[in-house]
Amino acid sequence: MKTATLASIALAISVSVANAQTIGVSMTNLDKFRQMLVNGVVSHGKTISGLKLVTENANGDNELQKKQVQQFVADKVDAIIMMLSDGDLGPQMTKIAADAGIPLIYINTTPSNLSDLPDNQVVVASDEKDSGTLETKQVCSLLKGKGRVVVLMGEVFHVAARTRTQDISDVIATPECKGLEIVEQQAAYWSRDYADQQMQEWLAAGVKFDAVIANNDEMALGAIRAMKKADIPMKDVVVGGVDATDDALAAMVAGDLDVTVLQSAVGQGAAAVDAAMKLIKKEKVPRENNVPFELVTPENIAQYLPKSQ
C-alpha cells in the first residue's frame, strides 16, 4: 500500500513537471499603464497551475528588447508575450520567434507586419480607432462643438499615437465638431514630465485654448500639473486622456480631468496569457483579439474605480 502511494506521488510530480509551462514577457517600458499591463499578465498567470512567467523591461531600447526575445528563445520558453517598443520591430521579432517555433503574442501594440503573422502569432490589443474617437467626441460635447484645442501626442512612430491623433482630426471633421480648431499639436512621448514642459512652453508663448486632448493619461496629467502651477482654474479647461489609470481617476475625482478612456490592462493581460496557453497547446487563436475601450467620465466613474486599481 505504501509503495503504491509513493508511486502515485511520483506520477503526480512527473505529470506536474511535464505540464509546467514558461512564458517570457518583454515590455517596452514601464509607465503607469504598462505596469498595470504587466500586473494583468502576472495576476492572471498565477491562476494557471504550473505556469512560470519571466518578465523583462526593455526600457524603450529596441536592441535590448530584441536581445531579450533572443534570450527567451535560447532558454526554450514555451511562448513569448511582448509589448513592442516600436511597431516596425514586428518583422524582426516575428522571424526570431517563428524560426524557433515559439508562439508569440503581441500585446497592446500592433506590429507593422500584422497581415503577415504566422498562425502561432497573434495580437491582443484594443481598437485604437475607438480610443481617440471616444475621447474627442466627449471633449467636443463638453465644448458644445466649438473651441480651441491643443493636442499632446505619444511617439510619432507609435501606432497608437498615430491612430489616436488621426481619430482627433476625424472627429473634428464631422459636422457636430467642425467648430473645434487644433491650435497646437506636439509630441510629449507619453510622458507626464514632457507634457508638463510642453504645456509650460505653450503658456509662455501665450497660446490660448479651451481643451487639451492627450493621447494618454500621463500626458494629460502633465498638462494639468503645468496649468495648476500657472494658476489656471481647471474648471475653465476641458482635459482628456486615455488609459483610466489610478492617477487619472484620482484627478477626475478631484475635478481636474474631464474624460479618459479605459484601456483594460487587466483584460489585455489576461487575454494575452490565455492566447499563449492555447497556442502552446496548438489550438487556433484569431490573429486579432480585441479588448474594447470604454468611456469614463465623472458621471460614471464610480463603476470604474475598482477596475483600475
From TrEMBL:
Localization annotation: Cell envelope
Record's signal peptide: 1-20
Main location: other
Domain Periplasmic binding protein: 23-284
One Gene Ontology molecular-function label: carbohydrate binding
Family matches, as Pfam families: Peripla_BP_4
Cellular component aspect of the GO annotation: cell envelope
Assigned keywords, A-Z: Signal
Top-level taxon of the source organism: Bacteria
InterPro entries associated with the record: Peripla_BP_I, SBP_2_dom
Similarity field: Belongs to the bacterial solute-binding protein 2 family.
Name of this chain's protein: Rhizopine-binding protein
